[in-house]
């Protein structure tokens, strides 16, 4: 009589196999075995709103040859009695007063700290072109107060005024209010197209 636990002749019993272990899962668990949550850093996260930045890709928005359109040899026509201010001929002085008082919200800014004269001129062109293409009305250009320059004078300040006055899309500019940078920055009012214009003088 044949024993029931023995296979019939001619048949083999397959060997017992252990369940396959996921090597990746084992490695991961081993790698994170000693991981612990980070302690609180105590840092304060500021939630203040800042003007919208202009990305470097905006340089592609410029018109061909616009980087060479600003001259260092064109004197700026400053508004009478307002040092560091400019108003396009034909515009009301009310426009300049409103700009100085913060009537228009600053929509973008350009910080020229650390740039050479030529780099600053090029960056200004890129910035203004991009601001115009986005329909921005009021922008801020930070040129610095010259505290770290050789003669402690703002090297770019006079040139910024000259360059801005050469742009047809700049209607007016003036020194920024103390809370917006004071003598180290300038606010510029830009022209917008009929389609982009949403506010009036």
User: What is the helix content?
Assistant: 10-25%
Order of helices and strands: HEHEHEHEE
Q: Given the helix and strand composition, which structural class is it? A: alpha+beta
Helix count equals 4
For the biggest sheet, the summary is: 5 strands, mixed
Order of the strands making up the biggest sheet: 1-4-5-3-2
* Number of beta-strand segments: 5
Strand fraction band?
5-15%
> Quick one: overall form?
elongated
CATH fold-type name of the domain at 82-190: Ribosomal Protein S8, Chain: A, domain 1
- According to CATH, what is the class of the domain at 82-190? Alpha Beta
What's the Cα radius of gyration?
Answer: 33 Å
Supply the CATH architecture of the domain at 82-190: 2-Layer Sandwich
Uncertain regions spanning at least 5 consecutive residues: 56-67, 76-82
What's the rounded overall pLDDT mean?
75
Distance between the ends? 112 Å
């Amino acid at each position: 009589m044949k024993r029931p636990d023995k296979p019939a002749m001619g048949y083999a019993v397959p060997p017992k196999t252990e369940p396959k272990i996921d090597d990746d899962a084992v490695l991961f668990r081993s790698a994170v075995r000693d991981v612990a949550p980070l302690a609180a850093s105590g840092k304060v996260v500021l939630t203040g709103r800042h003007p919208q930045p202009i990305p470097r890709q905006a340089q592609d928005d410029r018109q061909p040859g616009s980087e060479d359109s600003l001259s260092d040899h064109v004197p700026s026509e400053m508004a009478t009695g307002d040092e560091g201010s400019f108003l396009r001929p034909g515009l009301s002085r009310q426009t300049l007063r409103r700009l100085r008082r913060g009537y228009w919200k600053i929509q973008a800014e350009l910080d020229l700290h650390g740039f050479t004269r030529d780099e600053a001129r090029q960056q200004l062109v890129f910035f203004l072109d991009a601001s115009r293409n986005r329909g921005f009305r009021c922008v801020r250009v930070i040129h610095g107060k010259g505290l770290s320059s050789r003669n402690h004078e703002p090297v770019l300040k006079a040139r910024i005024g000259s360059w801005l006055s050469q742009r047809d899309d700049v209607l007016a500019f003036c020194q920024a209010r103390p809370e917006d940078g004071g003598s180290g920055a300038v606010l510029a009012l830009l022209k917008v197209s009929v389609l982009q214009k949403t506010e009036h003088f």
